[in-house]
Recover the amino acids of this structure.
């Protein structure tokens, strides 16, 4: 279970942190609940080759595929996305080296602008259980001197290249969705820049409490993404599950594809201007057994001026979204504002 470099342990102290929860009967009940064999499926696959075609009809058909997948699934895969597999694999190799560092160094040495996080040390219930570690880096910080530890300068350069490519892809996809609603190109993405968008390097360590014979596993808690769009590259092991028609389905890995998730903020924004055209309740659920998982994630998020933060009025059921609640503005009751809960995982 422990990965050691010399005499130093690289794994985060997940077992120690969750010791009280692991001894709780609720945890074992949770494992039994998770012991469900799920169907493996292929998400809708969209070839983006024609998205910038000079042929208007080809562009229209490609856009229709994107809109259909966003409406019916909230998730889809894209091919010919403009990001080389070589770049993704190079980052993954550097990412493996990064996570093999001693835990204390990852926590205290400020690597990648002090962006390291692990598990959920403040978890008080099984629902907050998270068996993971990650580096969560704002795009505008990748070029900072604080981000340039000599041993990982090559990773920083790769991340800069990937950040630019992912940003172009995210804006292109958002433009298609917004234009389909009759709004001008760039209406949403213009509020997203390097200060608000992120690259996240995720690792899900092997969990000793997983039970492969029953399908029981510990991973990332079920959640929705609270951004505009999330673009994800998963490794060959898989492990990603999404909710479709009120049941979990496992996403079959596709080495050549990127996965796109329509986030809460995009869906809520669409709700207020177009009656839920894209609204489908989708969640992410990572469930795995004895294998290490490596994910590369790009997060397209707007400036904070686009949304407002208020106290929780516990009205999330109105939108059926876990991270948002509508509330009236006292100064002008005709205005609707959003309560936004930023995810902590």
């Amino acid at each position: 279970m422990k990965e050691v470099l010399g005499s130093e342990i690289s794994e985060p102290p997940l077992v120690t942190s969750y010791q009280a929860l692991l001894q709780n009967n609720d945890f074992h009940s949770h494992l039994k609940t998770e012991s469900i064999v799920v169907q493996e499926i292929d998400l809708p696959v969209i070839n983006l080759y024609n998205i910038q075609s000079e042929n208007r009809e080809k562009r229209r058909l490609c856009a229709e595929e994107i809109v259909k997948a966003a409406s019916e699934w909230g998730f889809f895969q894209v091919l010919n996305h403009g990001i080389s597999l070589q770049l993704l694999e190079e980052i993954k190799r550097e990412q493996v080296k990064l996570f093999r560092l001693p835990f204390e160094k990852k926590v205290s040495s400020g690597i990648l602008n002090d962006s390291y996080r692990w598990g959920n040390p403040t978890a008080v219930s099984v629902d907050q259980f998270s068996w993971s570690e990650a580096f969560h880096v704002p795009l505008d910080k990748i070029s900072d001197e604080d981000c340039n530890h000599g041993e990982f300068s090559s990773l920083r350069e790769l991340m800069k290249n990937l950040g630019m490519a992912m940003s172009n892809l995210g804006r292109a996809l958002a433009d298609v969705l917004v234009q389909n609603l009759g709004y001008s190109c760039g209406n949403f993405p213009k509020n997203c820049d390097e200060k608000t968008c992120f690259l996240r390097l995720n690792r899900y360590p092997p969990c000793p409490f997983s039970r492969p014979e029953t399908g029981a596993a510990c991973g990332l808690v079920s959640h929705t993404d609270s951004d505009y769009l999330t673009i994800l590259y998963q490794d060959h092991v898989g492990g990603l599950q999404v909710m479709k028609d009120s049941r979990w389905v496992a996403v079959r890995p596709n080495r050549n594809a990127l996965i796109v998730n329509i986030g809460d903020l995009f869906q809520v924004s669409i709700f207020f201007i177009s009656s839920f055209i894209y609204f489908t309740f989708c969640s992410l659920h990572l469930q795995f057994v004895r294998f290490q998982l490596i994910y590369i994630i790009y997060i397209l998020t707007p400036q904070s001026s686009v949304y407002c933060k208020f106290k929780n009025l516990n009205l999330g059921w109105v939108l059926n979204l876990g991270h948002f609640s509508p509330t009236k503005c006292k100064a002008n009751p005709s205005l609707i504002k959003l309560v936004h809960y930023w995810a902590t995982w």
About this structure: The first strand starts at residue 4 and ends at 5. Confidence is low (pLDDT under 50) at residues 1-7, 271-291, 307-345. The chain has one domain: 17-307. Residues 105 and 170 are 33 Å apart (CA to CA).
